[in-house]
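Quick one before lunch.
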Amino acid sequence: MTSAPTHAKGLEGVIAGETEICNVEQTSLIYRGYEIADLAANATFEEVAYLLLVGSKPNADELAKFKADLVAERSLPAPVVEFLKTSGDLVNNQSAVPMDILRTAVSIQAHVDPDCQDNAPEANLRKAKRLLAKIPTIIGHMQNSIEGKDFVAPRDDLSHSANLLYMMTGSEPTPEAEKVMDVSLVLYAEHDYNASTFTSRVITGTLADMHGGVTGAIAALKGKLHGGANEAAMDMLSDIRNDIGPENDTAKITEWMHKAFAEKRKLMGFGHRVYKNGDHRAPILHALGRKAAEARGEEFVKLFDLGETVQKIMEDEKTIYPNVDFPCGMTYFTMGIPVPQYTPIFVASRITGWAAHIMEQHANNRLIRPRVAYTGPALRNWND
Ligand code: CMC
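Model of the carboxymethyl coenzyme *A complex:
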């Protein structure tokens, strides 16, 4: 190497690029200039999707056109539908999990997208809108197949969030459930150079296409240290419940956690590479989820009580705070969503951030090709 590189394990603290899309700081999370609490309180998911993909807040006409474009793209092409008919068997016989099915469905969608090989800005925006519109239908049809039911067709008159819930269950959600889902999608939409977004930029920095970047991003999001944490957090709370019994006995919860600490286990839904004093998204989703739990009844309130005790012990003893995936697990459970669909729903939101980054990468591309510090054997001869 000619000059000393900046490097750190896991690229911690390394500035690996530039973006106009999002800024993640200890004290704030900003999408294109708007603070996350402002967006969660005042914007719908479709408005946030437009903001991320197009770059500005939509006016009424722009929003109406954007929503109509999404509605028009909700149904799936035949090859994707045919694949999804097999998805229930694949999941039910445990040879695949929903994130694998979603990854493959997006990859098949590439084969039939007329713009697949075109990386021009207009083609990329068309592809982004198609993926945004179709991913909820993929998730819905997959869930129908898992349950051995006929596919529920998308509805033209429902929002992105309501339609997602409708296709998964066959019933129109209450306005309260739609709102909770919508805010969760706003919170999940974008987060600068997280692992999956960085993956999508590395892939598309070779001038590969958007579907390739998104397929790789889904693969990266699946892991428990990233998006898979929302499922893992709920699984952990279920494990605690199984071990301690039906009541929230603080002594038993503390004992469970001390055992986990002694075994040096990572508690899912806690900690963050950037936020060391707490994730700004977590309290927003926690408050909404807790309200939904109070409306649903005692079992769900007890889940949130358990989560709050776990959170307090983590904060008091480790000074480690929940990330957004911790309240997400409890919230989606309260909404009756099957646990293996939590991370696919994350995809139904983060597709906006990924697509925005892919478009930014293609618009001002330079191949992403860092160096690595070699730690292998010194030079040696094959014939020695
Ligand atoms: N449980 C227990 N200890 C933890 C946790 C945790 N969840 N997170 C961090 N620590 C400890 C860690 O063991 C280390 O302690 P020590 O210095 O004694 O070795 C210290 O805190 C620093 O942690 P780190 O592993 O160096 O932090 P990192 O920046 O490499 O990892 C993380 C960040 C998110 C991968 C990690 O906190 C983790 O594994 N959390 C659990 C999985 C999770 O919730 N992931 C979701 C991330 S955010 C949203 C998303 O992407 O979906």
